[in-house]
Write a structure and sequence with these properties.
about 20% helix; about 300 residues; alpha/beta; six-stranded parallel sheet; six-stranded antiparallel sheet
């Protein structure tokens, strides 16, 4: 958009959403404008970048550790841009490696589990598991405050309305597959705080190798103590001798032990490595669950 405004503005806000742009202008003086202004050359044109996807250059604001191999990167959007990533949707991150080649990966932005005062806008938070031999991991591991990466507009096919119409929500995640679940947990728990009746129950089955691999252990534990409708079950494949919780990998026995029989008003979401999600869905279907009540995050 390229317009010479008829009058000066105090500030502007550009909200990036999946379907387009929402621009808010705050007038410097109270007055009725005869028109928005004069259209300049190039108005209405948008140049696609990187194979048809639209990206913006974002700077690293903060980097904080979650555990020994996972960090949260807070990215600042450029200028007056604001972006709200729909629940269950993701973004693409693009950066150059040491050889100058572009590397691109998908990540799901996160927010605090239940902080109702925190909202998306001028920044995006990404919880990323860093691998020692990962192409993108080596780039992100070296990022410092002020460095830049390219960030896409949101994408995805999850409909948050499914959470509003379900009485029971079960989230089955493995490792970093937990990240798409964070906003789902947040949305359901905040909604439960606003209503007295017909609250949605939400249960997380979180598969990891060791205790050290569990993301936001303390936050999940705190939420389960504060919210009677939220429960979390940790399943470890390499639990130490002091681990008293469930052991093993995803299996029919494990899922049967921690899931109620299928009901029509139930939503099951699954995310993790490809083999994990395929095996989980196969087991659930064999147990009699309906695929129409499932959503798999790719």
């Amino acid at each position: 958009m390229n317009i010479a405004l008829e009058n000066p503005v105090k500030r502007s806000k550009v909200l990036l959403i999946e379907t387009g742009l929402q621009i808010t202008l705050e007038k410097s003086k109270e007055a009725i404008w005869d028109s928005l202004g004069v259209l300049l050359p190039g108005n209405g044109e948008m140049t696609p970048r990187c194979g048809g996807m639209y990206y913006m250059t974002c700077s690293v604001k903060t980097v904080e550790s979650v555990n020994y191999n996972t960090k949260i990167f807070t990215l600042e959007l450029p200028g007056a841009s604001h972006m709200v990533v729909p629940t269950g949707h993701h973004v693409r991150v693009k950066a150059k490696d040491r050889q100058g080649e572009w590397v691109e990966r998908s990540y799901t932005p996160v927010l605090p589990l239940v902080d109702s005062y925190h909202s998306e806008g001028a920044e995006v938070k990404l919880m990323v598991k860093l691998y020692s031999n990962g192409a993108m991991s080596s780039i992100l591991s070296s990022l410092q405050t002020g460095d830049t990466v390219e960030l896409s507009l949101p994408m995805g096919n999850f409909s948050a309305s499914l959470l509003d119409t379900s009485d029971h929500v079960i989230l089955i995640a493995a490792g970093s597959g937990f990240t798409p679940m964070i906003k789902l947990i947040r949305k359901v728990c905040l909604r439960n705080c606003e209503i007295d009746m017909n609250q949605t129950t939400i249960k997380v089955l979180f598969f990891n190798k060791t205790v050290e691999d569990i993301l936001w252990w303390d936050k999940l534990q705190s939420l389960s103590e504060q919210s009677p409708n939220f429960t979390v079950e940790h399943i470890l494949s390499r639990g130490g001798s002091d681990w008293t919780g469930t052991r093993g990998r995803v299996s029919r026995d494990v899922l049967q032990d921690h899931m109620s029989p299928f009901t029509d008003n139930q939503l099951i979401c699954v995310c993790g490595p490809t083999e994990f999600t395929q095996q989980t869905v196969s087991i659930l279907l064999d147990m009699g669950f309906n695929e129409n009540n499932m959503h798999v995050f790719e």
